[in-house]
Amino acid sequence: MSADGAAVDPSHAPARDSATQAGQGAGGEDGDSLHFRKLAVAPTYRVVAETIEREIMEGRLQPGDRLPSETALAEQLGVNRSTAREGLRLLEQTGLVERKSGRRLHAAIPGHVELSTRASRALLLQQVTFIDLHQLLMALEPAAAAMAATTIGEDDLAALERNLAETEARVERGETITALDTEFHEIISAAVGNPAWLMAREAAAKLLFPAADPMMSRLDQAPHRLVAAHRRILDGLRAGDVEAAREWMRKHIIDFKRGYELAGLPTDRPVHHPLNQEKDEQS
């Protein structure tokens, strides 16, 4: 009721402050029982890094453009020099800035190697297994071979031929071929001509292909089977035969898993950083 006794329409009643309502609902007119969560404030050096990153991503800083000095940057952003330095160091780790000459930093475009390395670390933290990675490459590698059969050029074919010749020589000498195996597949993926494809598969490949080392050392025929498969794949690519390239790559990736199992290696355990795999196998 109003002061003169007339009924008041609830829709025209004065609005009450939501915080006051919450405080009274909790049992206090003055809101003493109302509690806010602490704000999650990013460290200042991260804000510095994000500010510069935004300038690069939105095109106001182009690759090759020189950044201000630490002192100038600190003054412009209103932070101390050590904070500016930490922000720049973070950006340098991501590949968004680089030192071309001297001490001055320049804006840059991260290469697929830097990006895939970070993605590989994320996969390790997710504790992906051999099976997880193998399933992914079973989808990607045959498709890459099929597409490369229509796009690959003479330079890449020559690079694959050199790679295969060196692989054969190392097998005859009983030497490791993991790096050459990885390179063979990288050349094919690069020949697709799709940078998104290249980055998507490389993070998994960085972890899976080094797993061949312990298998090769336990199965005498494994290196020879790899060489034979690579030869068939290269023949398909050279002939521009999409289906042959796809099918031999599919067989090759399946054979990788079979060899891993025949060697008695676990396929359902989290993979490890390539530098730690040999140590893990010996433990």
Automatic annotation (TrEMBL):
GO terms for molecular function: DNA binding; DNA-binding transcription factor activity. Residues 42-110 form the HTH gntR-type domain. SMART domains: FCD, HTH_GNTR. InterPro entries: GntR_C, TF_FadR/GntR_C, Tscrpt_reg_HTH_GntR, WH-like_DNA-bd_sf, WH_DNA-bd_sf. PANTHER family: TRANSCRIPTIONAL REGULATOR, GNTR FAMILY (PTHR43537), UXU OPERON TRANSCRIPTIONAL REGULATOR (PTHR43537:SF5). Keywords: DNA-binding, Transcription, Transcription regulation. The keyword Transcription applies. This is FadR family transcriptional regulator.
